[in-house]
Amino acid sequence: MDWTFVLTQTLTQAIGIQAIIYCLAAIGLNVQFGYTGLLNFGQVAFVAAGSYAVGVIVLTFDLSLWLAIVVGIVVALVIALILGIPTLRLRADYLAIVTIAFSELVRLTVRSIAFKDVLGGAQGLNGKLGQDFHDTNPLPADFQSLPVLSWTRQDLWVVIVGWIVVALFTLLVWLLVRSPWGRIVRGIREDEAAVVSLGKNVFAYKLQALMLGGVIGAFGGIVWAVAKQSVQPDTFRPEFTFFAYTILLLGGAARVFGPIVGAILFWIILAGTGEFLGQAIQAGWIDFLQPTDVGNIRFVLMGSGLIALMVFRPQGIFGDRRELALDAK
Amino acid sequence: MPNDQAVSNSMAASAHAALSTVEPRPGVPKPDPIMVADHVRRSFGGLTAVNVEHVEIQRGAITALIGPNGAGKTTFFNLITGFDDANEGTWTFNGRQVAGTAPYKLARIGMVRTFQLTKALSRMTVIDNMRLGAKHQTGERFFAAILPFLWNSQEKSVGERAMGLLERFNLHEKVEDFAGSLSGGQRKLLEMARALMADPELIMLDEPMAGVNPALKQSLLGHIKTMREEGTTVLFVEHDMDMVHDISDWVIVMAQGEVIAEGPPDTVMKDQAVIDAYLGAHHEAQLTETGESLTESSDGDSA
Ligand SMILES: Nc1ncnc2c1ncn2[C@@H]1O[C@H](COP(=O)(O)OP(=O)(O)OP(=O)(O)O)[C@@H](O)[C@H]1O
Ligand SMILES: [Mg+2]
Predict the structure, then answer these.
(1) Under CATH, what is the fold of the domain B2-120+187-282?
(2) Quick one: closest CA in A to B77, which residue?
(3) Model ipTM?
(4) Residues sharing a CB contact under 8 Å with residue A111, sequence separation 6 or more, in sequence order
(5) Which amino acid residue places its CA nearest to atom 4 of ligand 1?
(6) Would A145 be classed as within a structural domain?
(7) What is the pTM of this model?
(8) Ligand 2 is an ion; residues with CB less than 5 A from it
């Protein structure tokens, strides 16, 4: 059994591109759910908006990636308005229902044959989506690989810039939540009516939180499209959103670093168990599993881990237990 | 201090004087109303919870809104402050038509309420609860929020004002505690102090004394009187008749959604319609525990 392989693979994935994408989605959810208490179950729609903005602008219309990023932001803002304006005045559960339905609606629309010319149908959009970005790669052309982390030259550049984007959004969230703006959204999470009674336009703040979280999620989608040079409609299934929630809860909701810790942990668990089981089966240690089972077993383990966390440390890794001990109202 | 005392006396006295000539009957006009409501009606299915023909709240006075359980007091509060939508009716605040106005806007123009079921923001500290109440904060705007130098000094002055109020309400040792860790009575105090942070012109308190021990009640009474001395109009709902008798300049009585009586505390509590509404017709009981305190003095110590 090759332990070095298990460890290096796990580490590479723990801080790799997928971790960055999920981390960004989870930072968005942290603004919406963690701080403001908005149950957005359709975060994947914002991620898809970012990915498809890149795909459509760069591939279909042959325009620049930088324009695509602006379009991705604008589309995310528009989606937030469309979802938020009718639902944010209603009880919290309405947003949850509408967002999850909307995210499926988005997926089914972008993969439909009707828009195949623009959106690529079920095959999605494949091509040199991230070329404008990869052209900026400052790494030496003969770059082989880092010692432990097995990224290609292209992936390493994505990882570096990806974590910088994560850091910038984390900084933005940190600045916001410690400000009077953050006080209001936390108040909304605790009791909307009380905040209204103090003269704050709660609806506007909820909309702002939804928009900000959506834009951060869209950046996850942009990173995805740039890194993979491909946009696939069926990657934007509802479980993406639930994995992002898992990450948020792992790290601790309403903690600035929660999504980062959560994303790394999530991929350590997922990649680590996957690589370990794969190796163990190969080495003949486990004979009741086939290599093809590994993918699913990982999620069984992840689910069990999440349940254990909720039982023994419901506040997440970073959370403050005192806070949870207080009754919510 | 003597100066304060003089002001305080004069405020109480002027409220009394202004209302002394007002006839004690439902819907009577007041010399200087801050709020005037007309034909306000709200039904839940077949039940008419509120049906107020006309009522005026005198500026600068402490007005009590009393009535048996289910009389519609809280619903009336909800309607007036925009937290619930009336089926019909109009009302003005400072002469301005405000029916249908969003509740946060009403709070901004000076009509601030508290809730019968206290709404402390549990997982926020006491001081953050207080700071939330302050108006016109630059840092509450999204883009200004990320530039702390724009709002740091304002934050400091807001914090100082909050500390002052917390001291007054005896919560200064709880500043950094989570509001959720406070006792029920302390939460009532916090909610009231937080409402004051919003600089209300009319503060509407829904059962501020409920669940508060007698010693604390006395200090709460003091706080409410202080609000009047500072020029704030107070409208409060309360079931404790001795308290109502002790501090209110005027009492409005609701039963089954309607205003059935109005007047100074002494007059109202002797009103047969009021006693009937509370205790049912044909009874011998008194509304306060010590019958005398209704008419004689205001030492209303019900403990
Ligand atoms: N949301 C609602 N749906 C249906 N009925 C309601 C609703 N809110 C209040 N009611 C009814 O309206 C009536 C008045 O209720 P309200 O809460 O205003 O009474 P109250 O005077 O505040 O009583 P209390 O002194 O017990 O607080 C009650 O009969 C109540 O059952
Ligand atoms: Mg009530």
Answers:
(1) Rossmann fold (3.40.50)
(2) A197
(3) 0.88
(4) A119, A121, A122, A124, A233, A234
(5) B44
(6) no
(7) 0.90
(8) B 74, 116
